[in-house]
Amino acid sequence: MAAMVLTSPSPLPTPPGDCFTYTATYPRPTLPGPEWTLVRVHACGLNRAELRSRAGLPPGRPEFNIFQAEYHADPPAVLGEEFVGVVDVAGPRSGFSPGERVAGFIYGGGKAHDGSYAQFSLCHSRRLFRLPASSAGQSLPWDVLAAIPMSMVTAYGCVVLAGGLERRIASQQQQQQQKQDQNQNQDQNQDQNQDQNQNQNQDENQGQSAGGAAAIAGHPNVTVLVHGATSSVGIWAILLAKERGATVIATTRASSKAERLKNCGADHVVLEDELDRDLPRLFPCGVDIVLELVGPNQTLRSLGFAARYGTVVVSGVLNLQWELHGFNPVMIPPTRNLSFYTMTNSGPGGEDAEIDHIQPLLAEVIAKVEAGAYPLDCILDRTFKLHEMGQAHEYMEQNKAVGKVVVTVP
């Protein structure tokens, strides 16, 4: 099969293209067990974690996900952690059938075993999800489909599950409804025989009630800071948070990317170098949810941006640094919360937690992409071909993208 093989793991300044060798004769994988599938890959999304693997840097243990027992520091020959494609061979206990269109999150791929930079890739059934069989799933091209699953699911998990966005909005709506009810009760208890001044006060109270109703009809002002917003997860965080009514603040190091972030829905765009100065001016009391995608070593800084009872969710390693040295839980400011999100086996034993929502969520979002609810130019930045993997890595490494970089597989 065709594959892009990592033959010379090397850090910069080695050109990325010198690290890979394209071959048409790489051995096709075979199923290691009955719960596995072999998928014909049509496109794969790129992750910055793969830059570390290409450079020969050891992965973090969370990256092995359900393959923790297979942890090793050296990368396999074929990188790649995600794909979209068609099931070619299905194990008898996988729950899948040949011919099904699927998206795979192969966290172990490109780490514990060969990944998706190839025509065929293994994927455990616990990390394989059906693409919708409706016209919504079949009308989008493979490169667009590849820009959706992992980034979107990660952003949803960070903002909605770990950050509690919908819960926060519901709580504020309930508080606003209670205030509206109080105003209405005050209006109803007004003495109908009051003089003109009293009637005027009644009108003012009714106006206040109308304002409360308008706030409820709209959305409460829950604030979300996306630190590392031009990444594919950052873009999806903006889209999903705005769709649910949050006020979104996006950060970037490049002023040239500010307009694109606004076009994706960000209410405020703050340059990285100005964040410590400008964010307190915009939100003196802090923000409700901080999505930390730059790296764990930014955690203390992000906690300083959080409002009382706010949550910092650490998920990304855009700066390629996994560790936070010298951290102690007592450094977390009082009433602030710190969380981490990845789609992992976080339940007891080998149980997966918080994954039942993924299949319906994926179908819903793909249908919305087809309907134009999410702009394609926000989701997919650029598409390369498999033999252009070096160029794709260089493009990503130079931070040129706003959104997902995708590679199609012939």
Automatic annotation (TrEMBL):
<dbReference type="InterPro" id="IPR051397">
    <property type="entry name" value="Zn-ADH-like_protein"/>
</dbReference>
<dbReference type="InterPro" id="IPR036291">
    <property type="entry name" value="NAD(P)-bd_dom_sf"/>
</dbReference>
<dbReference type="Pfam" id="PF13602">
    <property type="entry name" value="ADH_zinc_N_2"/>
</dbReference>
<dbReference type="InterPro" id="IPR011032">
    <property type="entry name" value="GroES-like_sf"/>
</dbReference>
<protein>
    <recommendedName>
        <fullName>Enoyl reductase (ER) domain-containing protein</fullName>
    </recommendedName>
</protein>
<dbReference type="InterPro" id="IPR013154">
    <property type="entry name" value="ADH-like_N"/>
</dbReference>
<feature type="region of interest" description="Disordered">
    <location>
        <begin position="172"/>
        <end position="213"/>
    </location>
</feature>
<dbReference type="Pfam" id="PF08240">
    <property type="entry name" value="ADH_N"/>
</dbReference>
<dbReference type="InterPro" id="IPR020843">
    <property type="entry name" value="ER"/>
</dbReference>
<feature type="domain" description="Enoyl reductase (ER)">
    <location>
        <begin position="17"/>
        <end position="407"/>
    </location>
</feature>
<dbReference type="GO" id="GO:0016491">
    <property type="term" value="F:oxidoreductase activity"/>
</dbReference>
